[in-house]
UniProtKB/TrEMBL annotation:
<dbReference type="InterPro" id="IPR016156">
    <property type="entry name" value="FAD/NAD-linked_Rdtase_dimer_sf"/>
</dbReference>
<dbReference type="InterPro" id="IPR045854">
    <property type="entry name" value="NO2/SO3_Rdtase_4Fe4S_sf"/>
</dbReference>
<dbReference type="Pfam" id="PF07992">
    <property type="entry name" value="Pyr_redox_2"/>
</dbReference>
<dbReference type="InterPro" id="IPR052034">
    <property type="entry name" value="NasD-like"/>
</dbReference>
<keyword id="KW-0004">4Fe-4S</keyword>
<keyword id="KW-0411">Iron-sulfur</keyword>
<keyword id="KW-0408">Iron</keyword>
<dbReference type="GO" id="GO:0098809">
    <property type="term" value="F:nitrite reductase activity"/>
</dbReference>
<feature type="binding site">
    <location>
        <position position="639"/>
    </location>
    <ligand>
        <name>[4Fe-4S] cluster</name>
    </ligand>
</feature>
<dbReference type="Pfam" id="PF03460">
    <property type="entry name" value="NIR_SIR_ferr"/>
</dbReference>
<feature type="binding site" description="axial binding residue">
    <location>
        <position position="683"/>
    </location>
    <ligand>
        <name>siroheme</name>
    </ligand>
</feature>
<comment type="similarity">
    <text>Belongs to the nitrite and sulfite reductase 4Fe-4S domain family.</text>
</comment>
<dbReference type="Pfam" id="PF18267">
    <property type="entry name" value="Rubredoxin_C"/>
</dbReference>
<feature type="binding site">
    <location>
        <position position="683"/>
    </location>
    <ligand>
        <name>[4Fe-4S] cluster</name>
    </ligand>
</feature>
<keyword id="KW-0001">2Fe-2S</keyword>
<dbReference type="GO" id="GO:0051539">
    <property type="term" value="F:4 iron, 4 sulfur cluster binding"/>
</dbReference>
<dbReference type="InterPro" id="IPR006067">
    <property type="entry name" value="NO2/SO3_Rdtase_4Fe4S_dom"/>
</dbReference>
Amino acid sequence: MIKSSRKKLVLVGNGMAGVRAIEHLLKLAPDTYEITIFGAEPHPNYNRIMLSSVLAGGTDLSEIVINDYEWYKNHNITLYTGHKIESIDTENKVVRSDLGVEAAYDELILATGSDPFMLPLPGADKEGVIAFRDIKDCQIMMETAKSYKKAVVIGGGLLGLEAARGLLHLGMDVSVVHISEYIMERQLDREAAVMLQKELEAQGMKFLLTKQSEAILGKKRVKSLLFADGSTAEADLIVMAVGIRPNTALAKKSGITVNRGIVVNDYMETNIPGVYAIGECAEHRGIAYGLVAPLYEQGAVLAKKLAGVETQGYEGSVTSTKLKVSGVDVFSGGQYEEPAGSRALRYQDEIGGVYKKLVIREDKLIGAVLFGDTADGAQLFSLIKSGESIQGKERALLLGLPDDAVKSSPTARLDAMADDEIICGCNGVSKGAIAEAITSGGCTSVGQIKACTKASASCGGCKPLVEGLLELYAGDAAVKVKEGICGCTTLSRDEIVAEIKRMELKSVKEVMNVLEWNNEEGCSKCRPSLNYYLGMLWPEEYVDEKESRITNERFHANIQKDGTYSVVPRIYGGVTSPAELKKIAEVAEKFDVPLVKFTGGQRLDLLGIKKEDLPKIWEELDMPSGHAYGKTLRTVKTCVGSTFCRFGTQDSIAMGIRLEKEFERLNTPAKVKLAVSGCPRNCAEATIKDFGVVAIDGGWELHVGGNGGVHVRATDLLCVVKTEDEVVEWASAFLQYYRENAGWNERTSTWVERVGLDSIKKALEEREERLALQERIQTALSVTTDPWKEIVSNKKLRKNFEPISRTETVYQEG
């Protein structure tokens, strides 16, 4: 028997840091080692950063796997999953697992990661108290959400907010408990944290700040969380996300020096020859890193060391965090807390939801915080690391203005980046690594770059930068590969709609089956969109699939941050009567409605209503639903026009009421708001609405594509007409053309910019085509019913609002 000349390398820990080091080593010295890997979890190497996406239902385990079983096989790696190493014999160089497997080594890498810190509270051992660290925790949360309603997350850091977001998407009532005065204090300053909290509260998340947990109450299963001030929070599930601790037990038991983590030098060597440590379990120069980029940097150094390649040792990392928390972009890097001797520059736009802060010392950038707009994060982090002077450039950097060297070209900006700049934070991929993959590795598409470097393989936030680098280095050789509406399919919106038409597909399940969805159950992105497309194409035949609707549309009311709902009855054109007002007031008094408010669309909003009271309130009101919760026509705002105003040129009230009655209950790709102003003074703000009508002498101006929300957009003038009938004709044609051509969840403002006003004008210029579109929209409207009245009169539907455990999958709007 010929003995192998290859050395034996054993890796303890099948996580991201350890396996990344092995990937580097295989490229540098593919034939040097016989590699054996032990992993405690029963899974191949997966991306722990993406667990929140699994929890939210957007992805499953197969989509977050970094290296599947085939990869280990192809590289002749012996993999033991579900094996926990119990002992290391450092004298004889042997490791032993809890399942009795022994493996000899010449070189040993410890990448045991970290363990979630569980608060030692009385009752912490009760059923329903878990951490948020691995796939198993995700599975427990998803199962719990099927039978229970209230969840409490202890910890307002990044991990806690990710857990809360996932639970919110599962339909649970979620409260985040945090001991500090503001959330994410390790990544953000107070101003950015407050803005983030407001965004998350708008999504339904609740916060209990400056609260110290005292005990977990309940018999066998958790019932509530007791705080030091004597107050309690009701809970069916408690998730502890208060931090992590390096997993050092194995090293300590084996005689390896341990402090907070396993102590290593610049080459990741422990005090025992031939034993190395990297990742969250390692402590380098007194620091144990918990972010992925430093761990990958450690792995790159260790791989070169093991391959015999000369390398500079690991000198520590300046850390940055670029992430998307529940759809909100956040970046922080360096020293953002204004240390002594520094000064800070700030820019804050509450309306636009943007906050920027630069921390400067001795004319050098030492820290930065970005909220809402993180496009300059990579450039700022590069300046933090390089330590170059920014004197005279402070204002331009704060406001994101181009300097003379970079101008405004995104490609030039990428070209000016340093090669060691991290492009993909999830996988620690630098600009230089991507450039090499393109220039030397022959990658000509984002998909190939993803396969080669793993850049953009996780959250996808860096994809625009990867595309820019591809354009920069590949030029005309770059191949653009289309991506589907979600990870379940490669088909675009237009392709899906075309296939539904061609094959006359009539159900969500049928579409996913026939069009070969990767995930046979779909996800929170594609199911609601398919439900809309089918209803739009086959209004008279398709039966709306309630389970594919977002939460607000399923309960026909807007869910609020405290778990209650708001009710907005339909008030046509904003015009009401004493009798109608009296009815609303009596209902509000009868059901102890906490708040009655006039909305920005001239409607009355009854806020703070319990779910079980919704049908009773709708019954007592006996008014149509205002559809303030759905992707439908919301309101038609009006001014008094010629009825009373001395400047009014047309009857805007009558026109507004006619339009609202014409299009109420209309399902659209995204919410739609209309307004009618009685004169060019535009008191009804018609020029920031999806469809705005402005009265002029002898006619009406018709405006389209406006938005008064976060991204304000003034309308474009579509045309000028003379009669009210023409207003309805053009409004019908425009709305139906939008319904048939926009993507699901695409506002008219975005759609008009994407397709261009000229293309819309051309599509609507022939009256014959406008009348055909009007006929189709009337067909769609003819089969709609008022959901409030339907639920009030249907005992089976009313049962859905009774206070019982929820068992259905809930899709929350993202």
